[in-house]
Amino acid sequence: MSKSRTTTPLPAPLFGHSRRRWVRRLPYGVAVLFIAILLPVTGMVLSNDYGLHPDLAVALAVLQTLPLLMAVRRPLRAWVIVFVSDVAGAAALLAVPVQEDRPWPWPPMAIIGMLLLMFAVGLRERRRTLLTVWLLVLAASVVFKGISPERDNGTWVSLVVLGGVLMVVGGALRERGDAQRALAEQETISEAERARRTLLEERTRIARELHDVVAHHMSVITVQADSAPYRLTDLPPEAREEFGSIASTARESLTEMRRLLGVLRSEDASGEGGASERAPQPGVERIPQLVEATVRAGLPVELAMPDPLPTGLPQTVDLSAYRITQEALANVVRHAPGAATRVSVTVDPDRTGLMVLVVNATAPDADAPPLETSGTGHGLVGMRERVRLVGGTLDTGPLPDGGFRVAARLPLTTGTEEELFTA
Asked: What is the chain's Cα-based Rg?
């Protein structure tokens, strides 16, 4: 039996979260540039100026410079390799004659490479790790100074001081980036929660309206079942008992429906909100009044509806057509005040669907700010939910000339309403 192996994914490169492409490639470019400069210079300086054996000088140059490319993704690991190589190089310099005019224990190229790595470590690691790195550099410098004080000329102090400053700067940049990413993530979560809350509010509002329709149907069933024995003569006793059972079940269902409506309206059961919820639900016949009120509000609206108005529509479709028109006009008022708008309500020739179309042009004053700029798409969410509930289709989007179009097709088949009530 073979054992599955799990591979650890590579860490993200430094500045890998930046939106700018050149910033994401910058660490690679810097690493390659300094490797190209430091690798040959380190080998020549260690061999010619410090007197190390050429082979040892080349080996140390490779170990002290090539890990810079590794530092793009794993700066701490690269620092460990370079630090050990620098310590080994400083120990090797103890075997050569004293060079009073040469920096020691860290040659200039080692100082440059170490500073780059300490900055990279600051960009990736936590404060405790940064303090450990700085203390190790300080301890190694002090130990070599104590081993060979005659070689010391104080250049190691620059590495300790500048390295500490660069790690502090890198750590500050890392913490700032982490805070910004956390804030962006929280904003994304908040936006998702806001959208979800808006959707639930819309569904609750639609449910309140649709349950009124269901309650009406249940009342009709109760009345018909109760009156059937009086309207229909010569009914057998079994049929009379069946109608009585239907009426009793319908009354119980209506009672439970009223309790459910009470729960849905618990937040606004008092005051104007509760009174408006108990009012009869509007339909297509109320769209002309809605357009008239919108025109009085200052929005030029042209209405096209069949004459006579369509009758016998399923109540859910009737209500949805009115609400979609209402929300589309409200969006025009908020986002394109004064824009010429056309509202069209038509029934398919075969009476299989009701088409609601609301199209607005651009606002006459393009420089004028809209009445609302921080909307959450509340109206569009409601339209989509209403169309989905009745099994219709919705097409919304901007027009080439800058306007906006809302087109909803609501099916008029009898199965639509029945399926909705049983869903």
From this structure: 39
Structural domain includes residue 333: yes
Task: Identify the residue with better confidence: 379 or 104.
Answer: 104
Whether 360 maps to a domain, the answer reads yes
Q: Give backbone dihedrals phi and psi of 346, rounded to 5 degrees, phi first.
A: -135, 155
Are residue 290 and residue 242 in the same domain, yes or no?
A: no
pTM summary value: 0.52
- Which residues have CB under 8 Å from 326's CB, separation 6+? 290
Residue 34 has pLDDT above 90, yes or no: yes
Residues ≥6 apart with Cβ < 8 Å to 341? 294, 299, 300, 301, 302, 329, 332, 358, 359, 360, 361
347 vs 104: CA distance, rounded Å: 92
Domain span at 76: 21-153
pLDDT class for 167, splitting at 50, 70, 90?
very high
Inter-residue contact 31 to 75 (CB < 8 Å): no
Q: What is the DSSP letter of 151?
A: G
Q: Which amino acid is at 276?
A: S
CA distances from 307 to 51, 238, 285 (A): 105, 48, 11
Please state the domain count of the chain: 3
Contacts of 134 (CB under 8 A, 6+ apart): 118, 160, 163, 164, 167
- Does residue 261 sit in the same domain as residue 288? no
CA distance 155 to 158: 6
